[in-house]
Amino acid sequence: MRYSDRNIYGKVNKMEENRKQSFITEEHGKNLPTVRIKKVTLDNFKSVRHGEITLCCGREFVPCGTESDILGIYGQNGSGKTSFIEALSILRGLMAGKSIPGAYADCVAVGKEFAKLEFVFDLQYENGVIREAVYSFCMSNKALTKEEIAEKYKGAPDDFYIPDEDSKVVIFDEKFSLLWEDASKRQILIDTSSKDNVFIPATKRKEIAGSGKKVLVALAVNKQMAYNTSRSFIFLSDTLKLFEENNNQSVFFKVLVELRCYARHYLYVVDTKSSGFIRLNFALPIFTTGGQMMFSTNKPEMIPTEVLNELRTEFNNISSVLGQLVPGLAIGFRELSQTLDKDGDSATVIMLTAYRDGNELPLRDESDGVRKIISVLSLIIAAFNQKSVTVAIDEFDAGIFEYLLGEILQALEESGRGQFIFTSHNLRPLEVINKKFLYFTTTNPDNRYIRLKNISATNNLRDTYFREIILCEQEEEIYNKTKRFKIVAALKKAGGER
C-alpha cells in the first residue's frame, strides 16, 4: 500500500505535525470557518478561452451547515468538463503549498502564452462573521533543459523511458484579495505582478510581512523559489512563516492559513487518472479524509501493524454504506502473515477482499463500477456529513448504474452538508436534482459554461436538454452537431468499403 499526499498512518505525532504544517494554533483551531468555493473563472485554460461558473452558494446566501451545495457539469466530449476539475486540482496543490506536476503544463491553451485562473471563496464562522476571499494566478509552461530533465529522472530504472523534451508549470502574477467584517469593500492584499517589488500594495506588504531590508530579501528569495519549483509564493511555507513572525493574529494571516488548511484537509479532487487505475485493475485508490491510500489489486500489501485497527474502521465505515448501495456487499481484508518492514518495525501482509452473502472473494474480481464506488465512498460520506468538505469527482458516473447514481446525488442534495462537484455523461441526475445545481458546456470557447434558461419547475430537464441539442433555443449552442449519415460513411470508409 502506498500513501500519497497526507499520510494519516505515519509514526509522528499527527496533531503536532498538522499544526506545524498548517500554521493553525490550538486557539485558532477552535474557530475555523466553513469554506466553500463560490465562483471559478478560467481563461485560456485547455479548451476554455473563457468560462465562469458561479456555484449555488455564490448566487444565494446559504448559512453554513444548513444544506449541501452541489455542482454538476454536463456536455459533450472535449468541451471543458475535465478542464474544470483539473483547475480545482491545481488550486488544491497551490494552496496546500505543493509543487504542481509538469503533467499540467499542457493545460495552457494552444497558442497562448499563459492561462489565468480565479477562485472566489466564502468563509463563514461559528460566531456569525462572514468573509470573502479571492485567489487568482497565471500559469505558463517552461521547457526544461537537458540538465533539468536528467535531474528530474535521476534514479529511474534503466528501462524507464526518459523523454527528450519536457516542461514544467510556472506560477506567476498571483493576487489575493479579501472582504472582511471591518472593510467596506474587497481589498487587494497581495499582488505579485509588480516587476519592481516582491508584492504590492506596499502598505499592505509592510502590514502583513513587516518592513526592513531583511524581510524584502527573504520575500524575494521565496518568490524565486516558488517560481522555480512550480509553487505558490503566497501559500509557500517559508512565506507564511514570515507573515506569522510579523503578526500571527492578523485577519489577513488567519484567512491565508485557513485556506491552506482547507486545501490540505477538506478539499478533495478525484481526476480521471485514478479512474484509469481502477478500470485497468492496476490499483485501487481509496480516498479518505486522512489521505489517499493506493492498494495493489493483484498482489498482497504490507502495512504497519499499528494501523490495522484504523484501516479496519475505515473499511467498516465504507461497508456500512456500501451494503445499502449494493445489497449484500461488504469489503475488508484478510491478514496473511506477520513480517518486518524496512525499518525493522512490525508489519502485516494483507489482501483486500469482498464479501457477498457470506462468500469471500478477492476485491479485484469485483466490477469496475463497484471498485469505483468503493474508492470514493469515504469522500461521499465526508461530503454528506461535514459542512467544511468539498469533493470534486471527474466522470462520477463511470461504471455506476444510473439509477444508483441518481439515488446517491438525491441523498446528497436532500440531507448532505458539504460541497459536492461532479462531471457526468449520464443524464439520470438531470431528472432528480434541482436545476440550480447544474451547468452545461457550450460550443463557444469564449463562453464555455452556462445554465439553461427559461426552465420551469415542471420541465423534465433531461428531455429539455435533448430538445436543446436539436433545436438550439438557448443563447449559446451546447452541442456541436453530428450527422448520423456522415458517421456511417466515415465508419464504412475506415473499414475499407468504397
What does this structure look like?
The chain is of the alpha+beta class and 498 residues long. The protein contains 16 helices and 19 strands. The protein has helices at 14-22, 26-29, 56-59, 81-95, 146-152, 202-209, 213-228, 237-247, 251-265, 272-279, 308-325, 368-385, 402-415, 429-432, 461-471, 484-494, and strands at 2-4, 34-45, 48-54, 69-74, 115-124, 130-143, 167-179, 187-191, 267-270, 283-288, 291-296, 301-304, 329-340, 346-356, 359-362, 390-393, 419-423, 438-441, 449-450. Strands 3-2-5-6-7-8 form a 6-stranded antiparallel sheet. Strands 9-16-17-4-18-19 form a 6-stranded mixed sheet, with helices on both faces. Strands 12, 13, 14 and 15 form a 4-stranded antiparallel sheet that branches.
Q: Structural class, from helix and strand content?
A: alpha+beta
Provide the helix percentage: 25-40%
| Mean pLDDT rating | 83
Radius of gyration: 24 Å
Sheet having the most strands: 6 strands, antiparallel
Assign an overall shape.
globular
Distance between the termini: 54 Å
Runs with pLDDT <50, length 5+?
1-19
Number of strands: 19
The fraction of residues assigned to DSSP E strands is 25-35%
Number of helices, counting only DSSP H or I runs of 4 residues or more: 16
Q: Write out the strand line-up for the largest beta sheet, numbering strands in chain order.
A: 3-2-5-6-7-8
